[in-house]
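Hi all, long-time lurker, first post. I run a small reading group and we've been trying to get comfortable going from sequence to structure in the token notation. Rather than ask abstract questions, I figured I'd post a concrete chain and ask someone more experienced to write out its structure so we can walk through it together at our next meeting. Sequence below, copied exactly:
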Amino acid sequence: MPDKNTITDLVSCQEIGKACVVFNLRKASRALTQVYEEVMKPSGVLPTQFTLLVVTRAMQPVAISKMAEVLVMDRTTLTRNLRPLERDGMLSVKPSRRDKRTREVRLTKKGLAHLESAVPLWQEAQQKVRESLGRGRLDRMIEDLTAAVAVATAN
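-- Answer (accepted) --
Happy to help. Here is the structure in token form:
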């Protein structure tokens, strides 16, 4: 039986679970991702893929390094997440016309069609979350998350 005086006793671990930002943020992320996955399933686009398609559409052509910066992702992780979309013909990843050392991401016609079918389902999922949380709480949550990203990424 563990020593009750250790830093990892049951009470300490329960307190960490209640107060830890990353623990609670990841738990909320998984729960909300499940909502979006379920609603968006008919589009064949996962919420993570949807995000990549949206960012590509908004910024195209976009360098992988810039995309990684915007998404606050490691370039290697981003590249690994782009591969299935490229394989399925939704994105193209090619050297930049201006600088061959830079790879750029572009949305294909097939990717645009998938994005167009996914947006109404995303809107449905977004509305479901908005109704569950309430508009004020959702708006505050988005503001707080935006602030948290700004603080965490400040140099």
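A couple of things your group might point at:
Residues 109-133 form the longest helix (25 residues).
The beta strands are 62-63, 91-95, 103-107.
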